[in-house]
Amino acid sequence: MNQAAKIGLLKTTYTQDDLGEWVETTETVNVFAYVSSVTMSEFYQAGLQGMKPEYRFLIWQTEYDGEETLEYDDKVYTVYRTYLRDDGRIELYTTLRKGEEV
Q1: For residues 6 and 15, what is the distance between their CA atoms, to the nearest angstrom?
Q2: Distance from C-alpha of 73 to C-alpha of 36, rounded to nearest angstrom
Q3: E strand map for 1-102
Q4: Domain boundary assignment for the chain
Q5: Please, what are the averages of pLDDT over each run of 10 residues along the chain (102 residues)?
Q6: pTM of the full structure
Q7: What pLDDT sits at residue 98?
Q8: Cα–Cα dist 59/64, whole Å
Q9: In the CATH hierarchy, which fold is given to the domain comprising 2-11+25-96?
């Protein structure tokens, strides 16, 4: 599977309100990505660390600002590893966020 899809990079920021309380704000930045399954080697290596990798998303490096989570197909995924490529793109390796498992 290697298909084009729209994903939402979830950028979380924290600010203090008038009472000094920290308020979490999440902004979604929509980008287009190529989506594919992870390789068997990636699945095995991540499995050794107790993770269950789901997808690899390929986007332009300029679109990525260190977001730790993204939304795809109405589910939220955690980015556990990135890989910078020589062609100006970045690979985001993801696992389903805790609480989102079926």
Answers
A1: 28
A2: 13
A3: 2-16, 22-37, 53-60, 69-72, 75-84, 89-96
A4: 2-11+25-96
A5: 89 91 94 90 77 91 96 94 96 81 50
A6: 0.83
A7: 65
A8: 8
A9: Thrombin, subunit H (2.40.10)
